[in-house]
TrEMBL record:
This is 2-dehydropantoate 2-reductase. Belongs to the ketopantoate reductase family. The lineage of its organism: Bacteria, Bacillati, Bacillota, Tissierellia, Tissierellales. Gene3D superfamilies: N-(1-d-carboxylethyl)-l-norvaline Dehydrogenase, domain 2 (1.10.1040.10), NAD(P)-binding Rossmann-like Domain (3.40.50.720). Coiled coil: none annotated. It is an enzyme of class 1 (oxidoreductase). It comes from Finegoldia magna (Peptostreptococcus magnus).
Amino acid sequence: MKITILGAGAMGCMLAKAIESPDNEINLVDPYEAHMEKIRKDGIRIIDRTGGESTVKVTSASTSSQDLEVQDVVVILVKGYDTEKILTENMNIVGDHTVVMTLQNGIGNVDILKKYIKEENIAQGIMFISASIEAPGVISAGYDSDKINVIFGAINENHDDKLFHEIEKAFSMNDIKTELNPDVDRIMWRKLYINAIYNLPCAVMHLSTKYTRTDENSVAILKAISDEFIAVTDKLGYNFDGDKLFRKYVTDAFEEYGDILPSAAQDTQKHRKTEAEFLNGAIVRQAKKLGLEAPVNETIYRLAMVQMNNYDNMFSL
């Protein structure tokens, strides 16, 4: 199967490792030229948390898809604010039967894809993995690099079921657990809960997860974010158990999840854009559509936007 990953950051490289197979042609496209050059020369070097190392060879790694044929699957793994740009720049590899799959954080990327791709050819999903780029061509995995889960599904009932099952098979290599799930929209919202609780709040507070869930004032904010999320998803018919989720990811979370600096906090630390629109901003948009209010999520979202728009004007802590 011909697969191109648009966005070969840490997550894109981990996906390449997971689906590496003689049966798959894997192409990486990313604007980070030094990263692409290193991968072309030496492959992707992946270091897991135990110190184990592996090298992944891909078919191609480039800043452009201009030399590629039409693909069977195009996976988008850029930040949400770059979705439209990278898709429109690479429409040459999208054919009538190409499945375009977003495995990105948050809610809202599918709406962008719908502007350019037939709905029956769109898939959405999530990856469960933590990783970061240590240097060009070098990826540090947050845990054992063979423990990767992907859940994806079609957004339209008129999709080619046979093709989607072929994709599930192609993505089930090297101990990766890939699941084609018809309830993927609910799963996307379920993952958004974790991002809404920690990603932007940690960025705005300039704290890691350990301190946002141990300070009584921040815990009160997280609980309000959670309650608003549950009100929205109840209206959508998902009926999550808010108390159970809050205990799992806040009250009792440290032993299982440890201390993490979420991606939005890392972006803020480096004065980069965050995915605010696709995280707490998505909850605010959906609340308004449903006739609800989400004032705490909106405050966190707007504070994140103010911060992002004024990096050059901020005083040092």
